[in-house]
Write a structure and sequence with these properties.
elongated
Length: about 80
């Protein structure tokens, strides 16, 4: 497993993911793939891989608590005005 593969863009913007990569990733015909742009370049992920990445990035964060604190602060500022 080298982790780097060179593929060529074909007609209508298509390219082929090498068989060994498809096998390792469990990709079959019809598997949804997510493509997104980052400042560093393009990233291809399965939906499950993207879900796991988002969960890892959000682990340990208290988004609800932060939102409530922000809303309470805004409400206090409005009451004071």
């Amino acid at each position: 497993m080298s982790g780097m593969y060179q593929v060529a863009m074909g007609d209508r913007g298509r390219f082929v993911i090498p068989a060994e990569v498809r096998d390792r990733a469990g990709l079959t015909e019809g598997t949804p793939i997510v493509l997104f742009e980052t400042p560093a370049g393009l990233v291809l992920l399965t939906r499950a891989q993207l879900r796991d990445r988002v969960r890892a990035n959000l682990a340990g964060l208290d988004l609800v608590g932060e939102l409530l604190t922000e809303r309470r602060s805004e409400a206090s500022a409005e009451d004071a005005a």
